[in-house]
Amino acid sequence: MDTHSQVVDRLRSVFHSGVTIPEQFRRTQLTKLMSMIKENEEQILNALHKDLTKPKFEAILSEVDIVINELHYAINNLRSWMQLEYVSKNLATKLDECFVRREPLGVVLIIGAWNYPLQLLILPMIGAIAAGNCVVIKPSEISAATDSLLAELIPKYLSQDCYAVVSGGAEETKALLQNRFDHIFYTGSQNVARSILQAASVHLTPVTLELGGKCPCFIYEGVNITAAARRLAWAKFFNAGQSCVAPDYVLCSEATRDALLSALREVLDNFYGKEPQKSPDMSRIVSQRHWTRLMDLLGKSNGKVVVGGESSEEDKYIAPTVLVDVAEDDALMKEEIFGPILPIITVESLEQGIDFINRKEKPLALYVFSDDSSVVKTVLEKTSSGGFCSNDGIVYMTLPGLPFGGVGASGCGSYHGRWGFEAFSHRRACMLRGWALERLNGLRYPPYSDDKLSWLRWTTSAKNRCSLM
Fold this sequence. Notes:
Blueprint: H1 4-17, H2 23-39, H3 41-52, H4 56-82, E1 85-86, E2 97-104, E3 107-111, H5 119-130, E4 134-138, H6 144-157, E5 163-165, H7 170-176, E6 183-187, H8 190-202, E7 207-210, E8 216-219, H9 225-237, E9 249-252, H10 254-272, H11 288-300, E10 304-307, E11 311-312, E12 317-318, E13 321-324, E14 341-346, H12 350-359, E15 365-369, H13 373-382, E16 387-390, E17 404-405, E18 411-412, E19 414-415, H14 418-423, E20 425-432, H15 438-441, H16 450-460
Parallel strand pairs: 3-4, 3-6, 4-5, 6-7, 8-9, 8-15, 9-14, 13-14, 15-16
Antiparallel strand pairs: 1-2, 2-20, 7-18, 10-13, 11-12, 17-19
Helix pairs in contact: 2-4, 3-4, 3-6, 4-5, 9-10
């Protein structure tokens, strides 16, 4: 078996041969990736169920279909993405050809996450392939069944000369990061992201970091409380709350909280029945370690459990749980929860809610539920987050036309659709000149004079455009 450095060197040699550059090669590899997903859907669903007890419904929506839709989008738009982008010119460059050329970066590393082990690995890979790169992918060892399946399938369907899978744990990742890559794409926690940045800094490697954070859901007065409860519960407890864009906590008034609690109890009963542990639609926590972390947070909280709270260590199960009377400095508010536990915090005004959000690190997503468009606009304009959605949760990130990524502590860079292509492309500034107008070029040569400077400034200045009414 090749060492990590041998794998990287082999891929770099292939990249320099230019094999990944032609549009047809990229299109073929994307089409083969589509075949891999479609032809092995049952195996993929089984692996996801083994890793997280993912319901088939959720697995198809969030792992299979989102990847297939992204592949269709990339294949349909690849030619236009690869086209030269011509730019405006001034008088001094009027006869020149000036454009931006998208070029692949080289050999890139994609490190996936365990909560959506197919989606969070393959979506960035689509962007990397579309942009013409060679790719090393590192699945999460925590979702072991999916890791093993991808390590088996990818070499069968994609070019082994251009794409490689490296499996293993934290030590394997650490060793892999000692190699020089042309870009590193990481999805996961902020703590690990710091280690990724340190490793990347040795080679001055650019990075995309897709992290998490505490995504707020601000429910303001006057909403359809039943619809709000359904959308909130679905977004929060989808995949047992193990989503980086899941609502982490709710902000609302006391009156709204009381109405919401009543609606949530009814909604959760409709969703998962009287005994959610027996529901086939409820995922499990990925590992004992993560289950213990969540139960420790719940145990340290001074909030009052008003819905759920039941758990089973053996089954790695935690019921959909809602808490009230949660203080800003509560244990549940000190880190991203990443599980089926929902604290509700009361605020009594729009300004108070916005101030609360702005006191925290910028989240990956921010949700506001309100029938008043001015309220939605105010929250949008006075806060900052990676993504924003009104009157729903998590669905915004399924649209390939929108960039998906964080800001500040929730990440840097974005992907999905064209944004993924751009993340793995170098935008090369190009000017093609001939030998004409040398007399005009003479204005820049010594000996300098005020007259030459005046003419040169005129030919290179950005002229104000005027329009006739």
